[in-house]
Amino acid sequence: MNGESGAVRAYRPLLALIVVGGLAIRLLHFALPLGSDDQVWIKVAREIAGGQPHTDLPVYYTRLVWTWLLIGWGTLGSLTLEWASVLMFMLGALTILLVAAAARAAFDARAALLAALVYAAHPLAITFDTAALPDGLAVCLLAATIAAFIHYLKERRARTLLICGLIIGLQFGVKNYFMLVSLPCALTIFASPLPWRQRCAQIGILAGGASAGLAVALLIGALSGVGLGSHIEGAGHYVDYISQGGGSESVRSDLVRFAALLVGRGEVLTVLFFGFGAAIGCLTLFGLIATAVGARRNPVLLFIAATVLLFVLFLMLMPVRLSPLTFTQFHERYLTVVLPALSIATGAALAAAWQALTARPLKIAAAGMLLAVVAYGGWVPNGMHDRYGVLEMRGLARALGMAPGTHTQVLLLPIHFRRLVPDSFYERGVTLRYVDFASTASLDSAFDAIAADPTVAIIAFRKPFRTLSERLRTGDYSDATSDALEAGLVPTARSRGYSIEAVRVPYDSLRVWLARAGVDTRGQLVAWLIRKPVT
């Protein structure tokens, strides 16, 4: 694309339209909370800001670049999940702009607009951008790193490379494995035709910038009372928390267990290209292939392809413990790490494909297909509601909404929900109390409470989404599917003749849209509401 023709003249208005449209789609699908531990970060930020004792897992107190961003943002409004979500919308908009800036620097305005459109409409980004989790900031910083490095490749300025390294180092205080983007950066410099001494000097500048960013992240930790030992301790606890074996205990062969693990992870990986976001996913696969083929001659394409492939391999194969061999859990949310690079690759491939189309009917067909893909991206994210953490909180929100009709004034929840429930849930006219249902004495006390007072109820959640083999689907389930800690709740309630009411929420696009239109559907079974029948 040459000169100021076409999309170049309208670049800024079109980019603004894409950003506004992307935010509108995110708002359409927005609900609190979107992740399993959104509220945990709010609580941790309050504790750090107030110098209070740490009450949660050590790892939550080491991602301090993210935590202090929350604290600083809270000073402009309030340190609540709702106000933090406003920040996430802003970070999402900034990420779209950074993706466009990187694509424009590497290619042209048309590629930039298409890359921004792909990111703005990708179901993974729509679903997870607005969750108040460190992933949103990490992806935004990753997009900034990619944009800075591409500018460096075009300009070869040491200052730009230093900024790139600084951003990489700061990722240690957000999500530390995002620092791996330094490897594609180093690889691209290493593969350049520059003299060896100059290559080594540039890699040294990148490493120096990353060290400076890391030092800033550690300094923020030190000023917050989190020393290097705390980082190590937090990492150890996190390894225990996220470890996932290679298969079931009944499979004895390590090779077979490893193969089973890869098959399971491959199923999650298909989400990126062929799953719920299949329309845009296929476009990004097209972009990745085109980028990989052209990587040999173009350093920008080499960097983008290497970035995507590195993080995909990391998520698929990275062990967190060698003896016994265990791997990190694989959640669809983690795939957002490849979205900025994938979107840039797709924007470039689509722009090249558009230029190659000479027949007017083909151009009309291509434009119509792209519009259909974007529209589908705006529809699909509701299909992701069937995920760990999301259904549990939405089930609780549904139970609170049912409270007036069931005359419930006090709701008893499992004790581990104390750290997860958003502050706004306490303002819905129902008193929330937490009970250790694993304790026989506490369980008996809870049943005595609802027997004595018909306004008291217990909510028993189904076994949540943890691994691929436990994905929840529609239909009725036995009592055995309740969470292991509360497995005795429903059978005990049934044996005592208590009232048991299913708590259901919409779980796919069609049911969500029907619910918004006021049409009730069967929905997904999420929990049981246990009450003493009113006599």
What's this entry about, in short?
The protein is α/β, with parallel strands linked by helices and 535 residues long. It is built from 20 helices and eight strands.
Cα end-to-end separation = 77 Å
List segments where confidence is low: pLDDT < 50 over at least 5 consecutive residues: 245-252, 465-479, 481-485
CA radius of gyration is 25 Å
- Mean pLDDT value: 81
**What is the number of helices?**
20
Percentage of residues in strands: 5-15%
Overall outline: globular
The tally of beta strands, per DSSP, is: 8
Kindly report the spatial arrangement of strands forming the biggest sheet: 5-4-6-8-7
What characterizes the major β-sheet? 5 strands, mixed
Going by helix content, strand content and strand pairing, the class is alpha/beta
- The secondary-structure element order is HHHHHHHHHHHEHHHEEHHHEEHEHEHE
Helix content: 55-70%
Write the layout of secondary structure elements.
Elements: H1 11-28, H2 38-50, H3 64-76, H4 81-106, H5 109-121, H6 123-128, H7 134-155, H8 158-170, H9 182-190, H10 196-223, H11 228-242, E1 243-244, H12 254-273, H13 278-294, H14 299-317, E2 319-322, E3 325-328, H15 339-356, H16 360-379, H17 390-406, E4 410-414, E5 431-435, H18 440-452, E6 456-461, H19 489-495, E7 499-505, H20 509-516, E8 524-531
Parallel strand pairs: 4-5, 4-6
Antiparallel strand pairs: 1-3, 2-3, 6-8, 7-8
Helix pairs in contact: 1-4, 1-5, 2-3, 4-5, 4-7, 4-15, 5-15, 7-8, 8-10, 9-10, 9-14, 13-14, 13-15, 14-15
